[in-house]
Design goal:
The longest helix is centred in the middle third of the chain and has 31 residues. This protein is mainly alpha-helical and 173 residues long. The chain has eight helices and no strands. It is elongated. Helix content is 72%, strand content 0%.
Amino acid sequence: MTFKKDIKQSWRTLIEILSHKRFFIIAGITALILFGILYYFMVSTVANNSLNIALMMSGVNFIYLTILLIIAMSILFGIYLSLVVFKFSFINTRKGGLFGFFGGIIGAFGVGCPTCGAFLFGLIGAPLALMYFPFKGLEIQILGILLLIISIFFITKSMNGNCRINKKLKTSK
């Protein structure tokens, strides 16, 4: 198969899995929870947990872009987790799927005010680490998003030849 065909087949697999209510709900709830956590990380490093103060300190464009990246990361991680649940529920495999979890964790390190330091960088003793990056941590979030996209592609690609997903989903009802 060519890369283009792999992408099309992976996209079909993803749509088939997420069209099932159970996996759509897993993706949605996970995305909402992760968004809440990452949003809290973003404003927790700012005085009084105020979004207005974060806007004044970091600028409107930076905060809005950060929120958009948090939304994208949350949705992708929700999709990734629902695919992992599907894979381990219906496909006999012992292979781990930790690559996407690394994407979520790496992306979470970029969330926060670059002046005060991201919450997770502060936990490991480097609160001003984001100040040294050219885009003040946005590149870390983009790296996390790219890792999640690659993870979703590979997990759906690994399911393409293993089963007929619709059969698995219909028998699980």
